[in-house]
Design a protein that fits this description.
The chain folds into two domains: about 110 residues, Rossmann fold (3-Layer(aba) Sandwich); about 80 residues, no CATH class. It contains eight helices and seven strands. Helix content is about 45%, strand content about 15%. Helix 5 links the parallel strand 4 and strand 5. Helix 1 crosses helix 2 and helix 2 runs antiparallel to helix 3. It is of the alpha/beta class.
Length: about 200
């Protein structure tokens, strides 16, 4: 085994619902109330998921424009200062998954080339750097930047081509069984991964 390709959401990062709730409390205090703030933040999450699903945000600049627009809308509707929203990104409301750091350190200690393939916005690298995990990853493959999303086999093949590794030499970990199934059909050593659960990395 010479490389590892990992999913991000559900493997390395998880939604931080507590952080989202705290932000709703902060924004709601300007008069609109917590429930209205939570509803608006939920709408933002849906807008972000839609951008990921449609691959409509292809660059970091387009992502910056999206979040600027969302921040202005939320600030206006909640009558909150724009400064409380400017610069926020979806990954500020995520947290490292249990065992994520240990997993990455273990892979790097084995001398493996590590890539992350995720259905997400272009700021995949920035999201992992923000949470202290980026230094253990060699290559970053965001669906929006690739123009392809899992489980499309071409997304996996593009990552493998860039890693310059044959499928049988690459371990693939994902929390989505469908992505694991597709990876296996391509010849990767793919496993469904549960954060924090002990697993053997094999030979």
């Amino acid at each position: 085994m010479r490389g590892a390709l990992l999913d991000r959401d559900g493997v390395l990062l998880l939604l931080d619902e507590e952080a989202l709730y705290r932000k709703a409390l902060e924004l709601g205090a300007y008069g609109a109330g917590k429930e209205r703030a939570l509803a608006l933040l939920a709408r933002v999450v849906r807008r972000v998921n839609e951008a990921v699903r449609t691959l409509s945000v292809r660059t970091l600049e387009e992502e910056e424009a999206l979040f600027q627009t969302l921040a202005e809308e939320v600030a206006r509707e909640l009558r909150a200062p724009l400064s409380k929203l400017r610069g926020l990104r979806y990954y500020h409301f995520m947290r490292p998954a249990p065992g994520a750091l240990d997993l990455l350190q273990s892979l790097k200690a084995r001398g493996l080339k590590v890539g992350v393939l995720s259905n997400t916005l272009p700021s995949l690298k920035e999201s992992l750097v923000h949470h202290g995990l980026g230094e253990y990853v060699d290559r970053f493959y965001a669906s929006c930047a690739l123009g392809l999303a899992k489980p499309d086999p071409k997304a996996f093949l593009l990552a493998l081509q860039d890693l310059a590794l044959p499928p049988p030499e690459v371990l693939y970990l994902d929390d989505d069984p469908e992505n694991v199934r597709v990876a296996r059909t391509l010849g990767l050593r793919a496993e469904v991964y549960v954060p924090g659960q002990p697993m053997s990395l094999g030979g």
